[in-house]
Design goal:
The protein is an all-alpha fold and about 500 residues long. It has a domain of about 220 residues. Helices cover about 70% and strands about 5% of the residues. The chain has a two-stranded antiparallel ribbon. It is globular and about 75 Å long.
Amino acid sequence: MSALAQPVFQPLAESVVQSVDWLAIAPPALAAVVALVVLVADLFVGDARKPLLGWLSVAGLAAATALLLPLLDGDRSTFCLTGDTRVCSYTADRFTLVIQFLVLGGALLAALLSVTALKDARGRLPEGEFWFLLLSSAAGAALLPASRDLATLIVALEVASLPAFALVGIRHGDRRSSEAALKFFLSSVTATTVSLLGISFVYATTGTLYLTQVADRIQHVDGRLDTLAQTGVVLTLIGFAFKTAAVPFHFWVPDTYVGAPLPIAAYLSVVGKAVGFSGLILVTVIGFPSYADVWGPALAVLAALTMTVGNVGALRQQATRAYSAVRLLAWSSVGQAGYLLVPIAAAAYSDDAEHAIGSTVAYALMYAAVNLGAFAVAALVGRTSATNRITDYRGLYAKHPAAALLLAFFLLCLAGLPPGIIGLFAKVTVFSAAVDAGLGWLAVVMAVNVVIALYYYLQWTALLFRAPEGEPEKHRVPAPLTAAITLTAALGIALSGAPQLVLRFTDTGLF
């Protein structure tokens, strides 16, 4: 090699070869490795031993969750820009760990529900493919909150989403499942395409994809490119707004939840939302803080529309003679998404944006625990009623007293009523974030929607304790389903006893 070429080669080598912090990336990496192990093992395991794949998946998700503990001692970053350790593609800070705990914990509970669902399906669902897709989606969802550049964010978003499309439509020969998967897929692809267009505009105006560099450079964009930058900011947010089921990107939710296997509906209601909200927080608060005057009002309006449309949609289900419990939970999840958007919008107006973001994360943890609990009880009822209508819950207390009491507790948490203290605490925290940011009108809209939601939550709760029609039949509850209900109940009750622990845990450290 000539002396002239030597100086060119050396910097190139230094920019390509990087050290990797394996401990930092261990949680999503382990979920991905277990997914590959399950896929390969499925080729060699006989039908009689297929359930072992489920327990291997549960163990893998539990281990991935446990790997978050060694990361609590301090922030870690890897895949950083050469010569600047502050500009990285992957960061395991407090915010990342909290969202990864929510994602992997939610996936673990969905896996416990799936063990029972696959056993009841008696071979109608391909077990190996099911577990591979679930673990792959969980790995992508766990990667997303650690992503600190727009390219990694989009890749993580798609890794979390693409397996989810297949999981929704995994029931072969089920027309409703196939239609739900197609609607979910087409809507998501359209939203992602729009986001990619927005990211290309942001890159064209800033020359970088790293969020911290975008935040610095987008403030000094040439005046002739200011409109292009604003358009890029808005379009980038659309894909994440879709994942949060924010109005008007919510139309896929009811049909998708009803058409999907119930554990997958539970997974989408929690993990899917965590993916959307964590991405939304990263691009707005870290990537585009100087454009708060653009995304702040937009998210405030979206929050008001989402909570209103979601709660009114759930209320309209009452007019249906035999409406589905899963469809009601789907509309409820849209309404809850509106509450989750409030603190993110407030961060644009508040001097203490970290506290506002902490309110969203705290509410997300509460929602994840109690919503997964409600889906777990719905899975119990669904074992004896394929339609899983609200009328099937009449007299549940006479059949399964513990399950009825816990479902009542979960519904009261979602409504924000005692003894669901954690639900009340979370709503007050979100309400305070809106008031402190000067968004009084949004706080009023939220208060009105809380009152609307009380009607359908309390009506469902009252139905649990009415006299059953006919002689109540008691059935044995499978151990995985019992474990899922018990874990969500323990978490909800513990947090109701000490709600202040949520805010301490969700001190995100993003700033």
